[in-house]
UniProtKB/TrEMBL annotation, chain A:
Natural source organism: Jiangella anatolica
InterPro entries (UniProt xref): Glyco_trans_4-like_N, Glycosyltransferase_grp1
Designated name of the protein: Alpha-(1-2)-phosphatidylinositol mannosyltransferase
Keyword Transferase applies: yes
UniProt keyword annotations, A-Z: Glycosyltransferase, Transferase
Gene3D superfamilies named in the record: Glycogen Phosphorylase B (3.40.50.2000)
GO function term, MF aspect, one: hexosyltransferase activity
Lineage: Bacteria, Bacillati, Actinomycetota, Actinomycetes, Jiangellales
GO BP, one annotated term: carbohydrate derivative biosynthetic process
From TrEMBL, chain B:
InterPro entries in the cross-refs: LemA-like_dom_sf
Protein name, UniProt field: NUDIX hydrolase
Keywords per UniProt: Membrane, Transmembrane, Transmembrane helix
Organism: Jiangella anatolica
Entry superkingdom: Bacteria
Spans through the membrane: 6-24
Amino acid sequence: MKVGIACPYAWDVPGGVQVHIRDFTEELTRRGHTVSVLAPGDDDDLPPYVTTVGRPLAIPYNGSVARVAFGPRIAARVRRWLVDGDFDVVHVHEPASLSLGLITTLWAEVPIVATSHSAMRRSRAMSAAQGILKSAFEKFTAHIAVSEEARRTVVEHLGVDAVLIPNGLFVDRFAVPPRPDWRSGDGTLSFLGRLDEPRKGLQVLLKAWPTIHDAFPKARLLVAGRGEIDDIRRGIEPRHRDAVEFLGGVSDDDKAAMLASSDIYVAPHIGGESFGIVLAEAMAAGAPVLASDLEAFQVVLDGGRLGAQVPVGDAAALAGEAIALLGDPARRARYRAAASLGVRRYDWARVADEVLAVYEMAIAVGSGGHTFKLPGLP
Amino acid sequence: MNWEWLFVTIAVLAALGVYLSWTAGRLDRRHARLAASRAVLDAELLRRSGSVLDLATAGLLDPATSVALADAASRARTAAEGAERYQAESDLTAVLTAVLDDPADLEPLRSDPAAAAALDELAMACRRAAHARRFHNELVRGAVRLRRKMLVRWLRLAGYAPMPETVELDDTVPRGLATE
């Protein structure tokens, strides 16, 4: 099968959608399909399957900065990619972002599958663009949402339905041994996410930390993620500071090792998470999860069967539950056992099967018809 | 009478003609896609009842369960087109849900590789059927929106094609298969 995937964000900027597309492409290529990814950005140092369309613009969108691409020059490159690729099916990601997904939708003449990732509050741009988006969305043969919240977003904003297929991960790659130097007598806690992004909730965890550290003086906290480490370090009370280790940005291998070394992976996020792939990663690495009770996290943790949950933003509850968990190895073992089975649901082996089934159906149904061609254009 | 007015009138009529023929073409393609997606849905429902029959006749489940599953599956496969068929498919879902709802019940079964494979196949077939129905209904809703437009109705651009209807049936994936 020849598949063209339109990625809305620059390939060299780290982000969940890019990782999703990268891993999915790898899985499809392994199965013998041909995949070409179109992304904004410049040409150097990218995997061979990525075609770029030039510098993206940084614009505020959905509460953070998105790098997106549009304009006539980019439209011409998108058309060239579609012609050269001769795809059986085109998969556009995040079609509601004013980016490659939308342009691709306008020009593609093959069946289009769309995937919506983000959950959004109603924004002015979305409302103003609704008419255009709605008519573009009519060309989709199949629409996927990665989470119930993402699905509700497209239903509410655009009045179209989508089916639920979760994000995937390579579960077995997280089965790595723990690193002895990251273990500790009373237990190791870990956090993962941008330090200066309030929605990731590091501030909640650091507020809870002194209480946890007082109860378990030999416990330590590993914090992985980019940001102003020095400022945040200084904000921690001196006697609790040395037990916190900042790892900065970590490689995929170090991330897996950190999770595998954790007695509790803490996800204190306070919002903005549509799916929570990082919870699935922790589950795959065998780290018992303690998360805020965001709706997306409740789904991944199966309502508390696969991990512990506390109210969003409640540092005292977080501290209490972390202390309870550190003192109860049996409960952690239960979570670990249930999660290692439950996380199989998100393994690419299974998720890619489901997406490929959608492709088959989309190809059988056919495309949404021809675009209005101007004379003289390919 | 002024020449400019004649010119403007001709231009407006020409634009209207282009728009109408484009809309008629759009409607035509929509109806073709609807027929195709309906065929896909039928195929996926057959795949689902087929997987149920496979599971029921493989000798992996107890006899009572096997008989209940096989009966519901063959009813779904032989029901007459239309409402009766959808009812039979919903009934099949009800039996599946009754039998396969608890992940814990299925755990011992999964230790047998053959049973695990049959359950996985059935899970995928259930999801495919549920997805196919949603995709089809979405195309139906799009077509209905287009056909409700005033010009389309007044000028009968859709010809005598019947107004498309969504397919309503219960295709919930049993919990035991959904959270494997």
